[in-house]
Write a structure and sequence with these properties.
mainly alpha; 0% strand; elongated
Length: 71
Amino acid sequence: TLAALDKALAEALRERLASPRTREAVLADQRRWLAARALACPAPAPGVEARAAGQTARCLARIYEQRIASL
């Protein structure tokens, strides 16, 4: 689920941020990823059919998995 992926991403990010030496670089990279995420998987407009919402959820799951693997 997206909730589980969000928790896994938070944990992976927390581990990477533990190193003071790379903390700022990791934070900058995370900010870039968040901006790209919003562009890659835009939220469907209110009232849009469930199929579009499902496509967005699959898109988010894919990029969350990629991000977790990259951390």
